[in-house]
Design goal:
Blueprint (H helix, E strand, L loop, with lengths): L3 E2 L9 E4 L2 E4 L8 E6 L6 H13 L1 H6 E4 L11 H11 L2 E6 L13 H11 L3 E7 L7 H11 L8 E3 L2 H18 L3 E2 L18 H15 L9 H7 L3 E2 L2 E2 L1 H7 L12 E5 L11 E5 L3 H15 L21 H14 L8 E5 L3 E7 L8 H4 L10 H9 L9 H11 L6 E4 L3 E7 L5 H6 L4 H13 L4 H8 L3 H13 L3 E4 L6 E4 H5 L3
Helix pairs in contact: 1-6, 3-4, 10-11, 11-14, 17-18
Length: 513
């Protein structure tokens, strides 16, 4: 979903009636819409806390909403019923989550969840109701309540979900729809919307001149180096009502982080193969996107400049990087280009002893799959107005060719293919490092046959017992002993069983996690 949002209003509190419509009475002390979360606490604990977690972690939602959870309140002398009914009255949005349990009943036979829904209905709150699957186990009193909710002429409809991620997806859509109805969010994309409080004098003219020079030499861009900034921004579609867009500030702003705090890259080097402290190195880059990419790439190259295991009693000599520089640049540039800027999360670049991971908030578009990334494919950029200038400056490749070139270059270097992992909230690229240099293999005590096998697998991706025997003209027993030894030394791992057993480099495993 590609959205933009307008500056938050100066605050709002209670609602009032005018001409049959509900309107806001503005109050400076309250600056966000208040969400009241209802649902049986013990049964739906995870779902209740998921609401707050999602709002806090999402840049767009956190800008406009705050969440009330009864669990967050300190113990008080007043009754809990007075507290939660007052909170319902003061809220703007009621989020009701229902599972199988009706909840503990009072002397009148009513549960807190029913009283909360009734209170929200009487005050005509915005009601978002979600039902967890499991009809056969649902208590009768809850079924009766749901029947009243489902009566669209008097009550409200609800949305079903199975897992928490489904619930969060539906809730996100509903909250965005609410913001659209309030006139805060438009259907414009983040990248094409005006950057809040930004002006053209917040643009770095020197960076624009640099861009024009590079774009002209690399992509034959038609504008001259001396073209006025406003004309350049018009040509690149980086103005919205004469104001610089989010994309324009991210690419060419003097201080992008002053407007968009989430736009940064965190780079971390770890001493081993796991996330652990202390870090070997840690940097945060929040300049314009061109500089962020350049500095993040340099961070990785500095971290992998030398062999992973140093040679003793020798002067170490600078060598070629074990991961193709193109693959590193492409992965980082893609993360910046395609990330979800509505998320508070930063792009993360993590260098481990056996791999490099590049993670960005957001997922693949619905038009792309992991398998399509491994072939020439059409481009579906999440932020096309960011992608175009990066392409013109030769930071990303033409449609669909970048990931395939990454794969090609990693293979040519004897490395496993890059790994790509996508879920609802994150996309990750994994680049395996070449830790199997000749000096390392010597230190691990491999014989010449085993060294030859490592080179073979680096080139071919796998080896079988039969291929190993034929390569070295040895018996099955010797082949079995050699290959088992490489597994014990954590060089190879096996896949399959019996005659179908194949041996692959352990580093290839990390790209498939």
């Amino acid at each position: 979903m590609r959205l933009s949002f307008r500056p938050r209003r100066q605050g709002y509190g209670d609602r009032a009636r005018h001409g049959g419509k509900q309107e806001k009475i503005f109050a400076v002390q309250d600056m966000k819409y208040k969400i009241f979360v209802s649902g049986v606490q013990k049964e739906l604990e995870d779902e209740r806390f998921a609401v707050k977690e999602m709002v806090v972690e999402n840049y767009l939602l956190n800008e406009y909403f705050k969440v009330f959870l009864f669990e967050d309140l300190p113990a008080k002398s007043k009754s809990s019923e007075k507290v939660y009914l007052r909170e319902v009255e003061e809220s703007d949005i009621y989020v009701g989550i229902f599972g199988n349990e009706y909840g503990k009943i009072d002397k009148k036979g009513l549960s807190a969840t029913e009283k909360e829904y009734v209170a929200a209905s009487k005050s005509d709150k915005e009601r978002l109701v979600f039902l967890k699957s499991g009809d056969s186990k649902r208590e009768d009193k809850l079924k009766a309540l749901l029947s009243r909710i489902r009566n669209n002429t008097k009550g409200h409809c609800y949305k079903r979900f199975n897992a928490i991620n489904e619930f969060k997806d539906e809730l996100f859509k509903s909250l965005v729809d609410f913001l659209k109805d309030e006139g805060i969010v438009s259907n414009n994309a983040f990248d094409e919307s005006a950057c809040k409080n930004a002006k053209l004098n917040d643009v770095d003219e020197k960076k624009v001149r640099w861009f024009l020079q590079i774009a002209k030499s690399q992509r034959k861009y038609p504008l001259s180096v001396n073209t006025p900034v406003r004309e350049v921004f018009i040509h690149l579609n980086l103005l919205d009502n004469k104001k610089p867009t989010n994309a324009g500030i991210l690419l060419f702003g003097k201080n992008p982080s002053g407007f968009l705090l989430q736009a940064k890259i965190k780079c971390i080097q770890f001493p081993g193969a796991q996330v652990e402290k202390p870090f070997s190195s840690y940097q945060i880059y929040d300049e314009n996107l061109f500089e962020q990419i350049d500095k993040a790439v340099s961070f990785v190259l500095d971290a992998i400049k030398f062999p992973v295991i140093q040679q003793e009693h020798t002067v170490q000599v600078k060598r070629e990087h074990e991961i193709p520089v193109f693959a590193i640049q492409e992965a980082i540039a893609n993360a910046v280009t395609h990330r979800d800027y509505n998320s508070n999360a930063a792009v993360q670049v993590m260098v481990f002893v056996d791999r490099v991971e590049i993670c960005n908030p957001g997922r693949l578009t619905d038009s792309l799959t992991i398998e399509k990334l491994k072939k020439t494919h059409s481009s579906y950029p999440t932020n096309p107005l960011i992608a175009q200038p990066l392409y013109l400056a030769d930071y990303i490749q033409q449609a669909g060719s970048g990931t395939t070139e990454m794969i090609k270059q990693c293979r040519a270097k004897g490395l496993p293919e890059p790994g790509f992992i996508s879920d609802r909230y994150e996309f990750k690229t994994i680049l395996a490092r070449d830790i199997y240099t000749e000096s390392v293999l010597d230190k691990m005590g491999l014989n010449e046959r085993q060294k030859k096998a490592v080179l073979y697998v680096k080139a071919k991706g796998r080896i079988t017992n039969q291929e190993y025997r034929q390569m070295n003209s040895i018996s099955n027993k010797t082949a079995y002993y050699d290959l088992t030894d490489t597994v014990k030394k954590s060089i190879f791992v096996t896949s399959g069983s019996g005659k179908n057993t194949v041996y692959i480099l352990k580093t290839a495993e990390v790209t498939k996690r």
